[in-house]
Design a protein that fits this description.
The protein has about 425 residues and is of the alpha+beta class. Helices cover about 30% and strands about 15% of the residues.
Length: about 425
């Protein structure tokens, strides 16, 4: 009897572990979707390619760990007529932020720091900070006032620290950071992350800490803190503590030469709707930056990955911090990351957690995603959403800049949700 009971427990445990892995059911209906209604998504994605609204794309929909839809359409390279493949590698840009946030919370759960401790406790350059008072756009000079309080780790995770964004931020942030060689971090040569972040600490904040939500270079700073707390480079920490345990074999700061042919080119769309391959630098980077060997690792935007690799990462979060028996975070850490952490501060109709935008009841009236859905995306038109109530992971990947059809990701969500049984 005792042996039978132990065998039963082992079977149950094995089933739970197996359920945490992404699986491929026989039919979308096994994942709770209507195969017939999903054909609408097929039709639309092919239509967007035929209309030249995008060169190609990959879509992946997972429900309760089961793949309901996984399709690549169009071309990755229009000039060579290369068919888009499911294992193609994309620059995921700001989707890197979620990985850095997970790394931060893993170290938080090791007792390396507390969320409301000042950054200056670990990086003295951030002591005695000031805040912009008046800014002269003509010559980029400015005056400052003292910061009312120190910025904290939580401020960095929530983008409420007062730090701006280099190259893509406000006029004030762009000008001031440019004078001190602070960049968005994706394509940096001749500089060290430690040096750049210490220079950043001496510069003024754009507003008083905790008084506003503003997208900034916060997560690059968190990436450097991960290096300080762990004693590893951010690249090594990601690889050893996140990618290898989860089985993410195609996610890199430096894409290996052997996989270079899988990196999808970037396209732009001109005013006449023509798709052109990006060859000149944009957003402060050259298009082939993932292939250039670098030692400056941007926690805010430096990674490249496949859609399935990133789906594994998201499924881990949906599972409450565990995937295939590998626990990275406690369920409470995931709960904290995916709940409103900015109070009444404004982020449109949504809120922000520790690394993610969070759908609210108000925003769920606009899009079909349930309140509590967490999401973000990347500058090169990669997007993801995780809906805990529906147990859904949605990803839609293109590789474009300056597209006149930025709303295709919204159409993708509508077409996915309408197919739910």
């Amino acid at each position: 009897m005792k042996k039978c009971f132990l065998f039963l427990l082992l079977c149950i445990y094995s089933g739970l572990v197996q359920a945490q892995k992404i699986t491929f059911p026989v039919s979308p209906s096994d994942a709770g979707f209507s195969p017939e209604r999903l054909k609408k998504l097929d039709t639309k994605m092919k239509d967007w390619v035929e209309k030249r609204w995008m060169p190609g794309a990959i879509a992946l929909v997972i429900r309760d760990g089961k793949v309901a839809y996984y399709n690549a359409v169009g071309s990755s390279n229009l000039e060579n007529r290369t068919v888009m493949k499911k294992d193609d590698i994309f620059r995921i840009a700001s989707q890197t932020k979620a990985v850095t946030s997970v790394a931060v919370m893993m170290l938080y759960e090791e007792g390396k720091f507390l969320l409301d401790e000042p950054v200056s406790k670990y990086l003295p350059a951030f002591a005695n900070q000031t805040v912009i008072d008046k800014f002269n756009a003509a010559d980029t000079t400015y005056t400052t006032v003292p910061a009312k309080r120190a910025i904290t780790i939580r401020d960095l995770l929530t983008h409420t620290s007062g730090l701006g964004y280099a190259q893509i931020g406000t006029n004030e942030a762009t000008a001031i950071y440019a004078k001190h060689n602070i960049t968005a971090g994706l394509d940096v040569e001749g500089d060290r992350l430690s040096d750049a972040m210490n220079r950043l600490g001496a510069l003024p904040l754009m507003y008083q800490p905790g008084e506003k939500w503003m997208y900034g270079v916060n997560v690059d700073l968190l990436g450097y803190l991960v290096e300080v707390w762990s004693g590893q480079t951010l690249d090594d920490y990601f690889t050893n503590k996140i990618f290898k345990p989860l089985g993410m074999t195609d996610t890199y700061f430096n894409v290996p030469a052997a996989k270079a042919n899988r990196l999808v080119p970037i396209y732009t769309e001109d005013s006449l709707g023509k798709l052109n391959r990006l060859v000149d630098p944009a957003l402060g980077v050259t298009p082939n930056f993932p292939l250039r060997k670098k030692t400056y690792f941007s926690g805010g935007g430096g990674l490249s990955s496949t859609i399935f690799d990133y789906a594994i990462f998201l499924q881990m979060l949906l599972n409450g911090g565990i995937y295939n028996g590998q626990r990275l975070l406690s369920s409470n850490a995931v709960r904290m990351m995916t709940m409103n952490q900015i109070g009444d501060l404004s982020l449109g109709d949504e809120k922000f957690g520790l690394g993610f935008a969070i759908a609210t009841e108000k925003s769920s009236a606009i899009y079909p995603a349930q309140a509590g859905t967490f999401s973000w995306g990347g500058a090169f038109t990669t997007s993801y959403w995780v809906d805990p109530k529906q147990k859904l992971v949605l990803l839609f990947y293109r590789q474009m800049l300056d597209s006149r059809h930025g709303d295709l990701s919204d159409y993708f969500r509508v077409l996915t949700y309408q197919a739910l049984n």
